Amino acid sequence: xxxxxxxxxxxxxxxxxxxxxxxxxxxxxxxxxxxxxxxxxxxxxxxxxxxxxxxxxxxxxxxxxxxxxxxxxxxxxxxxxxxxxxxxxxxxxxxxxxxxxxxxxxxxxxxxxxxxxxxxxxxxxxxxxxxxxxxxxxxxxxxxxxxxxxxxxxxxxxxxxxxxxxxxxxxxxxxxxxxxxxxxxxxxxxxxxxxxxxxxxxxxxxxxxxxxxxxxxxxxxxxxxxxxxxxxxxxxxxxxxxxxxxxxxxxxxxxxxxxxxxxxxxxxxxxxxxxxxxxxxxxxxxxxxxxxxxxxxxxxxxxxxxxxxxxxxxxxxxxxxxxxxxxxxxxxxxxxxxxxxxxxxxxxxxxxxxxxx
Length: 357
What we know:
Layout: H1 16-19, H2 26-40, H3 48-73, H4 81-98, H5 103-125, H6 131-150, H7 152-155, E1 161-162, E2 166-168, E3 171-173, H8 175-197, H9 201-211, H10 213-218, H11 223-249, E4 251-252, H12 259-272, H13 277-301, H14 305-310, H15 319-334, H16 338-352
Antiparallel strand pairs: 1-4, 2-3
Helix pairs in contact: 3-8, 3-11, 3-12, 3-13, 4-5, 4-6, 4-11, 5-11, 9-11, 12-13, 12-16, 13-15, 13-16
């Protein structure tokens, strides 16, 4: 008599709770736990360069996660996300420098302050769509950047604002090896929080608005309320990420956080997959590693036959910017659902292998 199968055939979900579980199988849950535990060992193995890359990936993935709530789950658009990221950085630095509040508490406070500002911009933006919404979020970007330039009491003006190292109850965490665990904790907490949010009534309302806002309104969903809420949530996670970035760099400057940074945040969720939480992390890692890869290729080509044949000379360094633009266009054309969709296809293939059905 044959023994029980290790992998049951079919889908035996018999309740709504089972259908909305975070991990579809026990194996996937165990892999996630093991993955987090292995990440805890990374600082003992990798050097400072790769630790810095991982820290940046974690910080930017939190900001991209907030943007995915707005764009991927609610169907809105924003090209002013970098301004909220910077607002969170300046707010946390200002609080930790001018109030007897540890950085551990300054970071979530900065997230709340940024969320409130996001709600202010979200109220008028929630009534717009299409090109008008794009212009409204672009206006938010330039309004905040102008505020940062003029409010020297808040940002330090032309002098970058200093930020305290991460501390909790008088104990400071300095260096990449220690700060890696801080970022890892915030990444895990943020992704678990958003995953559970999408399983709630409010999360389903956001998705309903994205899929068909007229049907959602007929079902009694308040479009203005939830669209405004999505702006606040996106700003909250951008503020958290910005605060983490400030206390990692220990200085905050608005240089490098213009419209091009907002486009990069959009690229992260487009490449990873809009409306996919796992895809957000994959897209962020892709965008962070892409410039490093292109830098390596640029250095390899410099002075070589291709460089001389095309007369690239010093222009070879612009390959990074060109590559990012080309890859975004390629994903929009050939893989609009992003890396997350490709990953699901790979898993489905091996789940059915060697059978085609």
